Known about the structure:
Rossmann fold, CATH 2.40.50.140, six-stranded antiparallel barrel, globular
Amino acid sequence: MPDIVLKNVTKRFGKVYAVKNFDLAVEDRDFVTLLGPSGCGKTTTLRMISGLETPTEGEIKIDGKIVFSSYKQINLSPDKRDIGLLFQNYALWPHMTVFKNISFGLENLKWEKSNIKKRVYEMAELVKITDLLERYPAELSGGQQQRVAIARTLAPNPRVLLMDEPLSNLDAKLRMEMRSELKRLHKEIEATFVYVTHDQLEAMTLATKICLMKDGTLQQYAPPLAIYDDPKNLFVGDFIGNPSMNFIESKVSNIDAQSCLLKNEKLEFLFNFKTKTKEITEGQEVIVGIRPEDITISEDSTNKCTVYSTLPSGIETIVKMNLNGNLFTLVTFGRVDFKLDTEIGVAFNSNNYHIFSKDTGEKLATGSLKLLS
Length: 373
């Protein structure tokens, strides 16, 4: 299975940059999700890899072979890139049975009938639709249609599978089921997957690596838990995670090699450094990032706050609390709930809190917190 390499890829529509100076290396058998808000360039990037969109400049290689180069005037058509494409719209032929929908591409490739039949049954068994082969698309549920589309895409045995939000038309429960099936499928066929989504939960649960984009540029490219635990900048920390990271605007004082004070009008923290990635200066304006699960409820804590709102869901409860006039979100696990306006104690027991520059958004340091006031 191939690697996919993009070097300095740019796509402009007039004077507007959809993708700008973009570098990406997708390794053999990776499941990479292109993640980001609407308009960030993720679908354009996928379409450039597939050949459906022509880059303004740059170079794209698949399995060591140049499929596009603005420098060498190379631009292979999609059918010569040995890729499979799966879109939000399943595009099944309504007048054909499931069998015919899956076999249609193989017939165009002039496969022998015996091999076509064998391959269709192999794909149907793989995605668990063997009993649906004689039905028509209108007789199938959304999830069943999705499985047919996957089987049809995989039938020619493409080296790369490119997917553009293929689960967005499904309801929440079915989406969860299909995520499990896609992850299993990726392992079984040992292919290279590139998957576009705006849903960060989908990216976190499916990917071996997440490529997070903003305004056509790469923000961070790493395994999901690495991005979650070690966001490169403020945008990454804010975009990844549900509920979102808590942010506190502060000013640095009393800084030394081991720690600093972080103050605003209502709160003061002692921050002990675990790692530093950038220089921090006295008086610098920063933003502290705190994951909701890194604030714990503690009856013994002297840090008291009042309950502003609660959202119990059975497996967990999301609590919004008022701490000295600042609203924080925390997550506590289990079947618990709290009355509004009651007082609870909270503790900051993690060593994975982050300091970001207010000016640039870059991460400056990671460490532990102690609430002083």
